[in-house]
Amino acid sequence: MPAGPRTTINWRGAIAVVTALVLWELCSRWKLPGFATVPGPLETVAMFWSKYAASPAYWQSWLASIRRVMAGFLIAQLLGIPLGLLLGRHARFRELVFPVIELLRPIPPLAWVPLSILFWPTHELSIVFITFIGAFFIIVINVFDGVRAVRREHVWLARSLGASEARIFHRIVLPSVLPAIGVGMTLGMAVTWNVVIAAEMIAGDNGLGRLTWEGYVS
User: Which of 95, 140, 174, 218 has the maximum number of C-beta atoms within 10 A of its C-beta?
Assistant: First the structure.
């Protein structure tokens, strides 16, 4: 009988992580250059348990950041996925809208902070908007590239057999684009966390970013 799937452990990766932690601890204890004021992992864990683990404010900061990330990420999906599909499927719409996308896309998300503070009446909406921007363009471009990667031969064949545009979209385009949508969502989620921490440091009054900044200046 064929052997079933076996769970493998990346021992080399585990050893590498443990080695890095040990070196970090030794460098911190020996006060090597660059580590004189950096606490080691043991001191960091002890400080976390004594100061943050039992603090309701710490977990409330997590909830605030998660709420902002999920709000911005959800809005980015609701707007970015349909926009990417339209850009990929309709040439005239792409000619009108894609230049604007390409003009705004290179702007770093944090560069939108001053404008978002002016546009939105509250800091909460400003941070959600920055989080949305961080994921929006990534999702749009990934979905657009996924649509453009659909093989034209499949579309031509379906049209020659009398398939409508709606049927082509549901049976050919959408299944082909699903991997690109998944990649865009994965990358977008990663960027939203980076953006929300930085945005909370600049414009937030709570959240993990604000907590990190207060810990730095205190």
Answer: 140
Q: What is the DSSP letter of 34?
A: T
Q: What pTM, to 2 d.p., does this model score?
A: 0.81
For 157-160, which contacts have Cβ atoms below 8 Å and span 24 or more sequence positions?
none
DSSP track, 127-171: HHHHHHHHHHHHHHHHHHHHHHTS-HHHHHHHHHTT--HHHHIII
The residue count of the chain comes to 218
The per-residue pLDDT for range 137-181, each reduced to its tens digit, is: 999 999 999 999 888 888 888 888 888 888 888 888 999 999 999
Q: Quickly tell me which residue has 């989620």 as its tokens.
A: 189
